[in-house]
Write a structure and sequence with these properties.
107 residues; mainly alpha; globular
Length: 107
């Protein structure tokens, strides 16, 4: 959704680069300090693979990663299932077109 020009003229813009893998891990550890490392590694691989996918209308954000990990932990999923499937993809992808897009390699 585009913001009105009159509003944008009154704004100061500061662009922040998306966190790298190490930064993402530190962010996740703040919210999930006891998270199994193997599950975190599998989830980060899947998450970063999704972010690299071409044609997404909205790439998943850091907050969606944290939420997704919360769901994975509550569901009791093991790392291998996270690596081989796309469990609870709706937590990461919010656009119907992104969810329905043909699955390309996301790992």
């Amino acid at each position: 959704k585009e913001l009105p020009d009159a509003f944008l003229r009154r704004c100061v813009f500061h662009y922040i680069s998306f966190p790298d893998r190490d930064q993402l891990e530190r962010i996740v550890r703040v919210h999930h300090p006891e998270l199994d490392q193997a599950l975190l590694d599998a989830a980060l691989d899947r998450f970063l693979g999704l972010r690299r996918r071409q044609g997404l209308r909205k790439k998943p954000s850091t907050s969606e990663l944290v939420d997704w990990l919360t769901v994975l932990v509550h569901a009791g999923l093991d790392p291998e299932r996270v690596r081989s499937e796309d469990p609870f993809l709706g937590v990461l992808l919010k656009q119907e077109a992104d969810l329905n897009a043909p699955r390309r390699s996301s790992a």
